[in-house]
Specification:
Layout: E1 4-5, E2 15-17, H1 40-44, H2 49-56, E3 61-63, H3 66-72, E4 80-82, H4 84-90, E5 95-100, H5 111-123, E6 128-133, H6 137-149, E7 152-158, H7 159-164, H8 166-174, E8 178-182, H9 188-196, H10 204-217, E9 221-223, H11 230-236, H12 238-249, E10 256-260, H13 265-279, E11 285-291, H14 296-299, E12 301-306, E13 315-320, H15 342-349, E14 354-358, H16 360-374, H17 380-399, E15 404-409, H18 417-424, H19 435-442
Parallel strand pairs: 5-15, 6-7, 6-9, 7-8, 10-11, 10-15, 11-14
Antiparallel strand pairs: 1-4, 2-3, 4-5, 12-13
Length: 449
């Protein structure tokens, strides 16, 4: 009874898979604030040429630089596990597999894109990177990349997560990054938000505004984003590309693939390579799972909106709750984003990808069950995908149907134990974001959207 399915380093992907090549129609272009297509020059103000080329590319396969692959070998290929003990606890005929991205140095999937982003910026002569982070996985991953590739890193961390997750802040500082609770007084965007609401918990949209403002204002500094954009989705496909080979080692193929979805990088990483099979005619469900408190894909609208809170970024066509939406301070800080990847959004809109929202308590129940059967304490973000997988496994138990289920464990929860403490104390609450609040935020969309 095999538990681990391992690939040698020689099987580490040599190319990223670009889902754009298999979309039913070309992606809608980014727009400027005037409603006209954004020029590449506008992107060049904050991104290096190599990443801009990937952002607009329709090539199916894009080569991974060899220096990036060498760094990836610190933890890639990551293992695929058969969750025998979880299956037994659920009394399900379903076969559950999880791709374990928590084995990276930062404990999450985020270095899959932080390393190439830092590499392309270094090739362009950039010395510093500014970024935002929610729960801290992305900030830690960019700090690691900066340390390995010789770049200075400044991180604007959403205030509620800065306070909830102090050890992720410490990890960023261990790798040499500067970390500030956002909003700050360091930027015009931060000062503007603080003037309106000094007690704001912050949001990813606000933190993005601060980081983008800094990148625009300094010639030696670019901006790095850990999710949403096309090149980030591209980099994360190493997860699914490895998983396809590992499922073949298990002599199996998933009926359904689950990934949590905030901006979309975890879901895209595990699911997009399987979408290539779906586009070729193979049956497979691809399920993006989000919190009910930040229901971007399930309750947002598919339209053009800014990626940040103050309108500094180009407009992207995506599912959005409105760029000034500030979600509650749930513990899955990496899923508290008002928008979603344009590529994921396009696939959801075309009904080629499913989206579901799950309440907070159910996700912690899933995380606890997973920890007590498989031994790994999952990050609160990962528990959303696990909860959806467990729902499906329970359905299989009721119907007697044997399905193969694949889920991405995008990170461990070693620095999220205060979240579990609150769960054990009965202090967590489910939160369905009020429809009226979403309606109010959507009223502030750009007039031409």
């Amino acid at each position: 009874m095999t538990t681990k399915f391992l690939l040698p380093e020689s099987e580490l992907p040599t190319h990223w898979y670009n889902v754009v090549a298999d979309l039913p129609s070309p992606p809608p272009p980014p727009l400027g604030a005037d409603g006209k297509p954004a020029t590449l020059d506008a992107l060049a103000a904050i991104f290096p040429p190599g990443l801009i080329e990937q952002e607009v590319s329709a090539e199916r396969w894009i080569a991974i630089p060899e220096e990036v692959r060498e760094i990836f070998k610190l933890w890639r290929p990551s293992p695929l596990y058969r969750a025998h003990r979880l299956e037994k606890a659920l009394k399900t005929p379903a076969r559950i597999y999880y791709k374990n991205e928590s084995v990276s140095p930062t404990g999450s999937h985020k270095p899959n894109t932080s390393i190439p982003q830092a590499w392309y910026n270094k090739q362009a002569g950039i010395r510093r990177l500014a970024t935002e982070t929610g729960a801290g996985q992305w900030g830690c991953s960019l700090a690691l990349a900066g340390q390995l590739l010789g770049l200075e890193i400044r991180v604007y961390m959403v205030r509620v997560s800065y306070e909830q997750k102090p050890y992720r802040r410490s990890m960023m500082q261990t790798w040499g990054a500067e970390v500030f609770a956002s909003p700050t007084n360091l930027t015009a965007a931060g000062r503007q938000i603080l003037q309106k609401n000094p007690d704001t918990p912050g949001s990813l949209g606000i933190a993005i505004s601060e980081a983008v403002e800094e990148a625009i204002g300094r010639a030696d500094t670019n901006y790095a984003l850990g999710s949403v954009l096309n090149h980030v989705m591209l980099h994360q496909t190493v997860i699914g590309l490895e998983a396809r080979k590992q499922m073949a080692l298990a002599n199996d193929y998933p009926d359904a693939v689950f990934g949590c979805c905030g901006g979309g990088s975890n879901f895209a990483g595990i699911a997009f390579p399987f979408f290539a099979d779906k586009a070729a005619g193979r049956e497979v469900r691809l399920v993006a799972v989000e919190p009910t408190s930040c229901p971007t894909l399930t309750k947002g609208i598919y339209t053009y909106d800014f990626g940040d809170a103050t309108g500094l970024t180009p407009l992207l066509k995506m599912h959005t709750l409105g760029h000034d939406f500030v979600p509650p301070g749930i513990h899955a800080g990496g899923l508290r984003y008002h928008g979603a990847s344009p590529l994921v959004s396009q696939l959801v809109d075309a009904q080629l990808v499913e989206a579901m929202a799950i309440p907070q308590i159910e996700t912690f129940e899933a995380g606890l069950l997973f920890a007590r059967t498989e031994g790994i304490v999952p990050a609160p973000e990962s528990t959303h995908a696990l909860a959806a997988t467990i729902r499906e496994a329970k359905r299989c138990a009721e119907t007697g149907q044997s399905q193969s289920l694949l889920v991405c464990l995008s990170g461990h929860g070693h620095f999220d134990m205060s979240s579990y403490d609150r769960y054990f104390a009965g202090e967590l609450r489910d939160y369905d974001y009020p429809a009226e609040a979403i309606k109010d935020s959507l009223a502030h969309l750009p007039k031409f959207a």
